Amino acid sequence: MRTPFNPLQAAILKALTEALFYGVDMRITSDQVVANLQHQFGMFEGNKPKEIGLSLYLVCLVLGGPFFLLFSPEWRAQRVTKRLARSQNNLMQDLARIRGVIYAGYYGHWEGAAEEDNDHNPVLNAIGFELPHQRTRGTGEVPISLFPGRDLAHDDVLAPEEAPDTAGVIVIGSGAGGAVAAANLAQHHDVLVIEAGAHYPSSAITHEERRMTARLFVDGGLQTSRDHDIVIFQGHCVGGSTVINNGIALRVKQVGMTHPQANDVFASWAALGAPVDAARFDAAYHAVEKRLGVEPIDQKSGRNNGTHLLNGWAAHAAASSDPMDAASPALWFSKNYGPREINADCAYCGYCNTGCPYGRKQGMAQSFLLDARAAGARILMQTTVEKIVWGEPDLDGRRVATGVEVLQSDGSRRTIRATKGVVVAAGTMASSRILDKSGIEGTGEGISLNIACPVVALMPGTMRAWDEDQMATYVDRGDFLLESHFQPPMSMSTLMPGWFTDHAGRMLNYSRLASAGILFPADRQGRLIGGKLHFKLRDDVELPLLRRALATLTRVHFAAGAKEVYPALTRGPILRKGDDIDLFYERGIREADDVTLSSSHPQGGNGRNADPEKGVIDLDCRVHGTTNVLVTDASTFTSCIRVNAQLTTMAMAHYATAGNPFA
């Protein structure tokens, strides 16, 4: 295992660890924290460790340079405190990033290789956390055990050196858009699915957070927008983001499940020049839901944190005079876990975002990729498509794809021929980059995000929110969603607001915490610049919505009985009942740098439109000006869909490929 941080960077990490944990009873040494980070970042692919290393130099410089390394931990803690009090936003952001890295190194501490090796893990024991194998499940509860028999096998996936020379249809990406397209097209053609990431069946997934985030996420879960305002979570493995998501399956519009006054997504698309056939799209939704066994989750899987949100919302809405509140559905999520009828229920271990080791989530590697394989499709892993290769244009001057140029894991390049066509489904940003390198104009424009922001609450009694489904319930407020969520220790520590002893105290109350987040749309504000996402929130649109949504969720926490509320503001302030909540957020959030923001739902960049001047692809998801290139992922969305994107991405892929477009 390589050590990505050089001796000076390691010394800075140690000094910062001692500063952040000054006054805290650390259960492992600062040297062990640095060793943990060397191990974790040593598993990363790409340049993210180098980027973090450069940030360490900057932070050390502004905190005193060599003096920060030589003086006492108390002096360092005081120095950080002073900087927090007067820093400009960019420096605050760098400090906050490094803070999250160090807390991950501490709370992500892992001993040995197996879960059982951590029965006496001092960090986990100190916060009262039990690993899944330590938990006791009573009568009527779902056992935390493997549901076998529906994973792609090792022999189902080709290693890079086994890449074929030719395929009928090449599908780029194995996530929600690529897998559904591959399953449909394999009924008619010789299909090759090309995936940049590796294959991790259930048996290869563990509860070692640091390992799974490093292996399963783009940039180890540290991918951000160009200015680092927004963290972008995307999968990097066979099955794509369906391996690391929460399985949420929401349609853009569904009676009883969607706010009646919410933006009508399909109407917006039609107004922009990108109508869908509503009956066909409904059929696509239905086909996907049926294959995945989508159903409402069992309420016992969200018995604490999930019911906390619903109870808090009921109390809040009852006291509200706003008709938007009265009309808001407050429900249990429907998901692609299970289905219960075959005893494959979710085991609600709380680790959805680092993959399901129990084979109970029907991600693409447990469903549509299996269907594609059964129909003869091949799946090639650890191979990155660089661009599409073009042949001679047809008689109408349209481009004809003849294959793709790929970069293999050993650094070599080669071309794989496609005799029928190419499907691009690598995700919003990767698909845009591939099309741009292939000479397609207009890609990477008009990117939307569903943006999330957490709010944690301290409850008067024990919650054990970590012993249940990470995301169980939601409220559709129309202009934003509230969603219950909770994280295992490493991830929770990075999103937990606060510094020094405040942060440590909140983590020691881990079993008394409730947590939820807001989800709000930021429509067509992003574009790729040099392959990186440039995305700025507008002062008159998204920032007021962010403040309003956070204020609402804060009130919901208090309505549910919270003693204290910890919003995800960079400086880590605290709210108590009786505080002026609206004023707090008005003063505390002046720009995106002031708050922790993330998105798991990048959309757009290659939007559908009948007019080639307004969209990259046509209404059938074919790239304008080409004969045989389709795009079937969330990059096709003409505007922001507002709700979790998994189901609509799959439905769009089905919508585009069910009729055999390469016939």
Topology:
Layout: H1 7-20, H2 30-41, H3 48-62, H4 66-70, H5 73-86, H6 89-107, H7 122-126, E1 157-158, E2 166-172, H8 176-185, E3 191-194, H9 209-216, E4 230-232, H10 265-271, H11 278-292, E5 295-296, H12 305-319, H13 323-326, E6 330-332, E7 334-335, H14 368-374, E8 378-380, E9 383-390, E10 401-408, E11 413-424, H15 428-437, E12 445-458, E13 473-476, E14 481-484, H16 489-495, H17 500-508, E15 513-529, E16 532-535, H18 542-559, E17 564-567, E18 575-576, H19 581-588, E19 597-605, E20 629-631, H20 646-657
Parallel strand pairs: 1-8, 2-3, 2-11, 3-8, 4-19, 11-20
Antiparallel strand pairs: 5-7, 6-13, 9-10, 10-11, 12-15, 12-17, 12-19, 13-14, 14-15, 15-16, 17-18
Helix pairs in contact: 1-2, 1-5, 2-6, 3-6, 6-16, 8-14, 8-20, 11-20, 12-18, 18-19
Description:
Strands 4, 6, 12, 13, 14, 15, 16, 17, 18 and 19 form a 10-stranded mixed beta sheet that branches. Strands 1, 2, 3, 8, 9, 10, 11 and 20 form an 8-stranded mixed beta sheet that branches. The protein has helices at 7-20, 30-41, 48-62, 66-70, 73-86, 89-107, 122-126, 176-185, 209-216, 265-271, 278-292, 305-319, 323-326, 368-374, 428-437, 489-495, 500-508, 542-559, 581-588, 646-657, and strands at 157-158, 166-172, 191-194, 230-232, 295-296, 330-332, 334-335, 378-380, 383-390, 401-408, 413-424, 445-458, 473-476, 481-484, 513-529, 532-535, 564-567, 575-576, 597-605, 629-631. The chain is of the alpha/beta class and 663 residues long. It is 32% helix and 17% strand. The protein is built from 20 helices and 20 strands. It is globular and about 75 Å long.
